[in-house]
Amino acid sequence: MITKARVNTPSLTQRIRNDLEEKIRSGAWRPGDRIPVEHELAATYGCARMTVTRATEALAEAGLIVRRKRAGSFVAEPRIESAVLDIPDIRATVTAQGKRYDVDQLSHRQRMASETSEERLLAAGGRLLEIDCLHRADGRPFAFEHRLISLKAVPEAADVDFSETPAGSWLLGHVPWTEAEHRIGAVGADDKIAEALAIERGEACLVLERRTWRGDAHITWVRQVFPAGAYDLVARFGPKPETR
Amino acid sequence: MITKARVNTPSLTQRIRNDLEEKIRSGAWRPGDRIPVEHELAATYGCARMTVTRATEALAEAGLIVRRKRAGSFVAEPRIESAVLDIPDIRATVTAQGKRYDVDQLSHRQRMASETSEERLLAAGGRLLEIDCLHRADGRPFAFEHRLISLKAVPEAADVDFSETPAGSWLLGHVPWTEAEHRIGAVGADDKIAEALAIERGEACLVLERRTWRGDAHITWVRQVFPAGAYDLVARFGPKPETR
DNA sequence: TAGTGGTCTAGACCACAGC
DNA sequence: CTGTGGTCTAGACCACTAG
After folding, report:
1. Which of A10, A241, B20, B217 is deepest in the core (most CB within 10 A)?
2. Among residues 114-143 of chain A, which lie with CB inside 8 Å of chain B?
3. What is the dotted CATH code of the domain comprising A84-227?
4. What pLDDT, on the 0 to 100 scale, is given for residue A130?
5. CA nearest to A154, candidates A135, A131, A181, A133
6. Are B161 and B133 in contact (CB under 8 A)?
C-alpha cells in the first residue's frame, strides 16, 4: 500500500468518521438508512477494513449509528435523552465571568453522622465535617452552600482552613473522586437561605445537589442554592467541537 | 498466536479496558500515575500491541487516561465539569413512572415570526406554530409547556392534531434532529403558570428550555415549567453500567 | 536520539442473524 | 447457508518529544 503524504491532516480513520458523520448530520442519510458495508467503505477509501471499522466503531459509540451483524450498519434514531451537562466548580465559574470571588464561611463543625439514611450513606457512624458557606461574586451573594464531608474518607479535611479556599475547590484538587451524581431542582428560599442570599423568603432558587464517591467510599454531599436567574446550567447534545 | 477459548466472555480489548479502568477507579493507580507502556501491556496479556491500543484509546476517549507521545499514558485528573444528563420526553417520563399521561392543549395558533432575536433565530421571517399545553400525570398538573415550531423547518406540523399526542413526542418521532441545547433554571410562577399548574403565584418552579436543530435548520424552541419538587433532573459521572 | 504513542496494513477466523 | 460485523494478529512506518 502506498503511504500517503499526510501533512498535518487528520488521520484516515478520523476523516472517514467525519465523512460519515457529515452524511448523517446533514440529513443526506436519514435515521434507519443503511450505510455501505465495511468492505465497500474500505474500497472507497482505499484502505484496510480495520481502518473503516475503527471509524464506524467510534460512530457507534457516539450513538450515531447502530451496527448489526449480518444486517449491516444503520443510522441511529436520535435520542434526546442524554446530553452533556457542564457543572463547574463555583469559584471557577465566578472567576471565569471576570468577577471577584469571595467565600464567607458561615459555620464549620465536626460531629458524628446521625442516623438519617442520608448521613448513614455518607459516613456510616463516622465523623462528619459540616460546613455552611456563602459564595460571592463581586461581593454580591451568588450561592448558598451546605456541605457534609466524610472524615472517614477524607480525614485530612479536619485540619484545613476553608475560610479562604472553599471546601469544594479544595476537595477537587486534593481528593480524586471517581463517581458523582447530581440532582437539579427548584425550591423556594427558606429563612436561612433568604437571609444568606439577601432575597425574599419563598423566592425561587435553583438547587444543585451533588454526591461524590471514590470507589465505594462516599466523600461528600453538597447542596448549592442559587437565586433564580443568577446561574443557569447548560447542556448540549450534538457535534463535539474537537476533531472536526 | 494461540487463539484463546473464549466462551461468551467480553472481548480481550474489553477485558484489558476493564482491568485498567478497575485499577484507576479503585485508586490503585492515582491521577498522574503512569500506566505501563503499550508493549508491556501487550506482553502481559499475550496479545498484539494493537489490541492494547484499542483499549487505551477507549479509556482516553472516556477521559480516564491521557496519552502522550514519548512520555507514556497517565491516569487523568478527574473533572467534575461534565456529566451525562438525562432529559427524557415528558410523556415518556410520566408513563415510565407508571402514571396516566394526559395533555391539555391550551392554545394553538400560526403566526409570523416576530422580530425578536429569539424568533428570528428560530424562523427568520417564516411562519411559526405556537402551542401552549399542560402535561398531566394521573390527572394532576405536571408541567406547563410553551412551544414554538418553525413551519419553515417542519411544514407538515401545521396539519397535525396535538391535542392527543403532545408536540414534543410527535416531533421526536417524526423530525430527526441533530443538535440540541438545554438551559436549566428556576423561576417564580407568573399568573399564567400558577393558574395552569394550580399553584400559588411566585411559587418556585424548575424551568427547562430546549432548542433543537437539524443541521443548520432550527426546528423548535420549548420552555417547560415544573412545580418545585415535581421533577428533578439527574446527572451522572462515572462508570457506565454497560460493558462491565 | 531513542522510545513513546499514532496510525495503518493485509490478512485471518469467528459468531451471528437474516435469507 | 452466506454475508455481515467483531475481533485479533504481527508486523510496519511515522511523528513527536522528553531527556
Report:
1. B20
2. none
3. 3.40.1410.10
4. 94
5. A131
6. no
pLDDT at A197 over 90: yes
Q: Which of B176, B181, B183 sits opposite A31 (nearest CB)?
A: B176
- Grid cell, residue A31, equals 435515521
Kind and range of the H or E run holding B241: none
Region A190-194: mean pLDDT is 96
Q: Which residue has the cell 490503585?
A: B28
Does residue A6 carry a pLDDT above 60? no
DSSP state of A223: E
Asked if B12-75 and B84-227 have one fold, the answer is: no
All residues of chain B having their beta carbon less than 8 Å from the beta carbon of residue A26 are 215
List chain B domain ranges: 12-75, 84-227
Is the C-beta of residue B66 closer than 7 Å to nucleic acid chain D? Answer: no
Say how many CA atoms lie within 13 Å of A205 toward its Cβ: 29
pLDDT of residue A14: 92
Average pLDDT score, chain A: 86
The fold adopted by the segment(s) B12-75 is: Arc Repressor Mutant, subunit A (1.10.10)
Residue whose C-alpha cell is 443503511: A34
Question: What are the angstrom distances between the C-alpha of B129 and each of B116, B120, B136, B176?
Answer: 16, 14, 22, 18
Question: Each residue of A214-244: pLDDT tens digit?
Answer: 877 889 999 999 999 877 788 777 654 433 3
pLDDT < 50 positions in chain B? 1-7, 240-244
What would the pLDDT profile of B152-203 be if each residue is shown by its tens digit? 889 999 999 999 889 998 988 788 777 888 899 999 999 999 999 999 999 9
Compute the distance between CA of residue B145 and CA of residue B105 in angstroms, rounded to an integer: 10
CB < 8 Å to B183, chain A = 232-235
